[in-house]
Design a protein that fits this description.
With 276 residues, the protein is mostly beta strands. The chain has five helices and twelve strands. It has one domain: Outer membrane phospholipase (ompla), Chain C. Pfam families: MipA (PF06629). One of its GO terms (cellular component) is cell outer membrane.
Length: 276
């Protein structure tokens, strides 16, 4: 979002807590911590950290055909398997999580990067601008062998973003590739309440007057379905690369919104990191 954000630093920091992608996906599948593979979490101290830099390709707004490019930090830091800071979930605490327990439960505060700067997008003039949103999150899941079932519930706690509640359910199949690589495929579905969906896809009565779109109530319901493919590859014991690609399709009220230009959405992240 180089052309729309006021500074590159602000864009990089907000993208660090994006909801759509991050290093913590493979980390879930690694939490057994057997030590048999080089890509698993370190077990020799209190800290496990992966820090680096990458690039995010993200839709200009939900329903856009245009992708924006933004530099991002790549973060996945954990202390004593309890306190974490990562690209996907933000800053949080694992209430239930251990190497020998397939269940996990946690709380975090993160950043949802979905936004819309309507005043700077041709054809969307008159719609309200929507900023990215700080969210309070409940994270839960369990592992069944190589399958990792994840549930996330998030409530907006900022005042300038989507101002609603959303839930996401995903089931990832993670497969180690040798001793230095891990690949995961995860279908998912996202649901939003009335406030969430209308913030991103609705047209209020006031917006219908100032824009070229009819009044539209997106309502509560499923927002999108999709799948992501991500990989974590180590070149050495310390240096690795993280890749993530995601496809989703807008459904329900989100797909019927009068300003949506395509129901098909694509995102991608690539980043190089150093593991401590």
């Amino acid at each position: 979002m180089i052309t729309h954000k006021s500074t590159m630093l602000a864009a990089a920091m907000t993208a660090a807590f994006a909801a759509t992608a991050g290093l913590s996906g493979p980390a879930h599948a690694q939490q057994n911590g057997s030590g048999e593979n080089d890509w698993e979490e370190n077990d020799g101290g209190d800290w496990d950290a992966r820090v680096g830099a990458g690039v995010l390709f993200n839709p200009e707004f939900n329903g856009s055909k245009t992708l924006e490019i933004i530099p991002i930090p790549v973060l996945d830091i954990t202390w004593r398997n309890r306190i974490f800071l990562n690209t996907q979930n933000g800053l949080g605490l694992w209430l239930v999580k251990s190497d020998d327990d397939p269940k996990y439960l946690g709380l975090s505060v993160g950043y949802n990067f979905d936004d819309r700067e309507s005043s700077a997008i041709a054809g969307l003039e008159g719609l309200d601008d929507i900023d990215g949103t700080i969210e309070a999150k409940l994270l839960a899941g369990f592992e069944l062998g190589l399958i990792d079932v994840e549930f996330e519930a998030a409530r907006a706690i900022g005042s300038d973003g989507h101002d609603g509640f959303r839930m996401e359910l995903a089931a990832g199949l993670g497969v180690p590739v040798g001793n230095r690589a891990f690949v995961e495929f995860a279908p998912f579905v996202t649901w939003g309440d009335d406030s969430y969906n209308n913030s991103l896809y609705g047209v209020s009565a006031a917006e219908a007057v100032t824009s070229n779109f009819r009044e539209f109530d997106a309502g509560s319901g499923f927002e999108k379905v999709g799948a992501e493919l991500e990989g974590n590859f180590l070149f050495t014991d310390r240096i690795g690369i993280y890749l993530n690609g995601e496809y989703s399709r807008l459904v329900g009220g989100a797909a019927d919104s009068p300003f949506i230009r395509t129901k098909n959405q694509f995102e991608a992240i690539g980043g190089l990191y150093y593991r401590f």
